[in-house]
């Protein structure tokens, strides 16, 4: 039947699901009903050694006792464009598994194939319903988790057109998915049953991309059961053997600008990286190089503000006064602000969200503002802000007040925090008593504000 040496083991994983079949019907059935075990010789995975999609099959192989060899010296953008590779997958996508009976592409299909090589593999569960739930969570990990992580990350690092509303939609969809996952894991150690399944392997690999490059501790702390689940899995021996040590991202990558003088940096990054992850790094994907490159501009931009003439206003002293004032806020904190304020060294700005008509769901609007403040973390040394979400019913208005070092909005903030362009910005004229009073009201979260109730008031300090 095959040109390569194989043997076939027919077994019914779910007796209640299958009945006695003729040899002819066996040939017509795929892996859904019968396990076909291929002589596990020369299973070669074509992927880089940092490819999370390749990790799925490698971890499944560890649990299944199947030998899968990772191709040597794979270079993304070169190896996957070779004639041999394009014969296996004409569109050049990675990974591809080379088997004695021909190639398999698409990472979930490869992981399923490797898992099927072991008869009655517990990675597929032990009953028909458990098998269905494994497949359910594989789809969820792919369509709800992985897809939205990529929709958020890829444009940020310059591999797709960056559109702020699209990122907001991706973050909102990811949070929705993580909330559902968190709820499930609040009463379950694993996704299905009481041990690791293929669903956990695929979910963990997809989350690894998010945790290592995008999802900071501040972001994931909203989902404590997901955190517990993720760190438990990646520290299991079979996971750790393939993944190595996973470290959580400390910040969201800043937006990759259109300038691409990054070529000079590319040779140096791969040299630095191998020290951290030993031999895993020679095939480092360009994706990670792009993330690493983005860290460089930050110190230069911040240094430019440090070169301004000294200011009599000590920003940390104002932040302490704001935080410690619990009563008589107008008399203590607001008055203290104007006593400290240095109009030569600092400037005040009003901002108004441009797309308030889209703010029809309260939690999405609050998440939008929370995300903005999180991404403003790079400016903490040079800024103080108040963001008000206004209205008792949708659409909600978002308005803000910001104090920045210098007379203009710092350029590095405009360059690196995309949210800035979602707002109209207007410099406060402190000689105008009406504008000054509006500043006072925003600092103290006065309600009603401009005749409307406050849904929420957030502070950046």
Automatic annotation (TrEMBL):
Any idea which UniProt keywords this protein has?
Elongation factor, Protein biosynthesis
Annotated ranges, domain EF-1-gamma C-terminal: 301-461
Question: Basic and acidic residues: which segments have biased composition?
Answer: 266-289
Matching entries from CDD domains are given as: GST_C_EF1Bgamma_like (cd03181), GST_N_EF1Bgamma (cd03044)
Segments of this protein annotated with the region Disordered: 253-304
Question: Which Gene3D superfamilies does the record match to this protein?
Answer: 1.20.1050.10, Glutaredoxin, Translation elongation factor EF1B, gamma chain, conserved domain
Oligomeric state and partners?
EF-1 is composed of four subunits: alpha, beta, delta, and gamma.
Q: How is this protein named in the record?
A: Elongation factor 1-gamma
